[in-house]
Design goal:
- By secondary structure, this protein is of the alpha+beta class.
- It is 28% helix and 25% strand.
- The termini are far apart.
């Protein structure tokens, strides 16, 4: 379940958030009633979880010290992320990533928290992502305690338009560095209040989703906008 952390930039409960998925991943979430968390060092952006130039000084990172490098590589393998987008409306740039089979869950931070109450084994945190210049800025906030979580909640300014909100989980998985992600149980009913379908998607996808919802006795709002 989600627990507050005093040093993180937690969004307000009423904040509207989106999760964009492929159709296959959405159906997996629906059928398994599990939310996927991706290990931070396995994201396509290889800067994820790395120290900025200023952070290296703050955390006494020694580029020439093998032990120092190994320590931070181990740290990156201990953090798992679920990515959400803060926005009052759908984003075309996200639909473009998922082509003709994109699905989006539109919900609120409060609903997401309620959904994760089913997970009693793990502790998740939620925070807005901080976008920085890795050469000139720090993941840390002036006047607050040093916090490794903040490193994992920082991205390059190149991605700033996404306005990402992250669920983050610290999880030690001994002896298997190949595990790129973990799934946690969720309550799907509070989460699936609105489901949006890519404007490029074929009509059968909407019918498929309606059918799957009926199997689960769910009745969310299903939206497919047509865009020129």
């Amino acid at each position: 379940m989600i627990k507050k952390h005093p040093d993180l930039r937690e969004p307000k409960d009423e904040t509207v958030i989106w999760k964009y998925l492929s159709l296959a991943k959405f159906l997996f979430l629906l059928k398994k009633e599990e939310l996927h968390f991706h290990r931070i060092d396995c994201f396509p952006d290889k800067n994820e979880g790395l120290l900025t130039t200023i952070d290296k000084k703050i955390f006494y990172f020694d580029e020439a010290n093998i032990a120092s490098k190994e320590y931070w590589e181990r740290e990156r393998k201990r953090y798992y992320i679920s990515c959400w987008i803060e926005s009052p409306h759908e984003l075309n740039l996200m639909w473009d990533r998922y082509s003709n089979e994109g699905i989006a869950i539109k919900t609120t931070v409060a609903n997401l928290k309620e959904s994760l109450e089913r997970d009693v084994k793990n502790v998740e945190r939620i925070s807005k992502v901080k976008y920085v210049d890795y050469e000139k800025e720090s993941s840390q906030d002036y006047g607050t305690p040093k916090q490794i979580y903040k490193i994992m909640l920082t991205k390059r300014k190149y991605f700033e338009q996404e306005k990402e909100i992250r669920l983050i989980m610290f999880k030690e998985i001994e002896g298997d560095s190949k595990i790129a992600g973990v799934n946690v149980p969720i309550y799907i009913e509070p989460l699936l209040q609105e489901i949006w379908i890519s404007p490029k998607a074929d009509a059968f996808i909407a019918e498929l989703i309606k059918q799957e919802m009926s199997f689960k006795n769910l009745n969310p709002s299903i939206v497919q906008m047509s865009h020129i």
